[in-house]
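Re: folding output
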Amino acid sequence: MAALWTSADAIAATGGTSPCDWAANGVSIDTRSLRPGDLFVALKDVRDGHDFVAQALAQGAAAALVSRIPEGVSPEAPLLLVPDVLKGLEALGRAARARTAAKVVGVTGSVGKTSTKEMLRATLTGQGHVHAAEASYNNHWGVPLTLARMPADTDFAIIEIGMNHPGEIAPLARMADLDVAVITTVAPAHLFAFDGLEGIAQEKAAILDGLRPGGIAILPAGLDVSDILLAKATETGARAVTFAATGADWQIDRADWGAEASAVQAITPAGPRLFRVQSPGRHFAVNALAVLASAEALGADPALSAQGLGRWSPPAGRGQRERITTDPVADEGFELIDDAFNANPASMAASLDVLSILRPEDNVGRIRQGRRIAILGDMLELGPTELALHAEIAHHPAFASLAIVHCVGPRMKALHEALPQGRRGEWVETAAELLPRLRALVDAGDIVLVKGSKGIKVSLLVEALRKLGQARPQDDKGTE
């Protein structure tokens, strides 16, 4: 197998220098996940990566990208010396993109970026060599890292692009040099950095600045800000393909919204299209429209794309469903929906919709009546109207089907106070405070949603709920 980066290629890309020849098969920024043969990139973040270069080399790193010779490391060691490590990583990313004939799709949006990226990965797998971002590597170092890891023989690349502040998306999109750009939706998120939804739409639309001439923009229709997205497509010369709303190029005609999966017939420019999403929730089906439209724009086979899409299910932290078996003898337990990675008003509504259509199990456990339970943590970075946005969740129609709602975080106190007395559960300021009482709050037969922004750490509750029993994916029915 050819090396991902030789010292000669890396020097040509970055303009750096190296005292010796080396070849790397991967790129890493973390010694905890570094594999032998990786190029270690000594980024400066919370810690200075230069402090870990000696360790990385001892673990078998092929070389290290540095801006100075670290203390305790020989000048003759395999180092790629550049003036600035992040700019060096960006240069590797641009060079990796330039040397491949891959079709590249960029994904952004207020909600659903990572799920859409993973849907695309599943959809394109088997139709060529697919390269995609790991986890949510979508920021100023995540995008160049994903590009720098891209093998030269890649056929399809999927790049997730996020933002927290204005001006972040366009440079990353230009670096990725996109053939197709997807905007999943525009919703209130990161409002602390923007004047309103229009500002968020303009920033999301900036992904179109990274499209190659003749590129295709996959855009959500029916939003209050859809005109801003379409205007940007016209400005950049992109061909706009719309999805989601009635009248869009790709729209849902009929659907069976099952508790285990969604079967959809879509209206498309090429005629009716049937597909299946192995997860409940209209939002996943709508994102699937964007995925199939993107796959078609990339030249993928429609039938194989639909088959690949049908193999996708939500990953941990983003709506993954698990059965927690609390009594293996009686085969009793509860269902856990792990959506603890991120939250804003739009994704919160989507998760509550999913919870509302799932059916608890009666005649098991202490209570004998299965319940829908939500444990909701703060939605962060919503700006000056954050308390009102939290309180408004109480008006969501899904609450009529919930038995009880527990709230975590200072902002979620606004929702707790807005809930009707009968559904108002516990309120705690931190997730850790709920841990001692967690066992008493759930019972066999229940369906428990845990949702919140990553910073509020409701993932601690997910892990604690798993430890109440034996976890297995919802689609694993066992071998009995």
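--- second protein (sequence, then structure) ---
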Amino acid sequence: MSVCENYKEVEKRVEEACKRAGRKREEVTLIAVSKTKPVSMIEELLPLNVRDFGENKVQELTAKAEILPSALHWHMIGHLQRNKVKYIVDKACIIHSVDSLRLAEEISKAAQKKQVTAKILIEVNVAEEESKFGVRTSELLPLIEAISLLPNIAIKGLMTIAPYVENPEENRWIFQKLKNLSIDIKGKNFDNVTMDVLSMGMTGDYEVAIEEGATHVRVGTGIFGERNYTI
């Protein structure tokens, strides 16, 4: 199947998941995760009015953003090193992967220099997997409180990367937990903090994530096919 056919299939499944959950289709942003994929594949999707793309590496995001139309929305979804922040702070529509105060301070500093407000999500390691980045749920509130005081930063919500599972139902509790955390935080009424975005669900489990309240799903393999990491 072509990239466009894959996208249409994913789109159909997103729509069906929204229906099952009694949600409107426009409540969910489908991010096409284009990491490691060539610009030509992204261009194939543009006639379908696809505008949201996700990248894992700063260099790849900035290179693609330079070549492709400026109307596209680039989501930084990979682990972000502090020394790379300055390259991305005015290019990413949302940085999904903030998991420390030091990283947030660097983003704040770079955003002030570029005179922008950086929109960020706090990455939560809900499953507490050793191999994953993200803050533990017990550390989430103090971190949000500290980041909310920084200038030129707006916390827009939460993000998680659920474990890889054969059966997506196994990750349902993770998505429920992230949703509940966002409700708790919203109730605290911190300045510069809204909980409008829940970035959760990938190729294997995005339908379950939508049923549990995801506003942004990150689908790569389901749209672009398997990745070759040896390149």
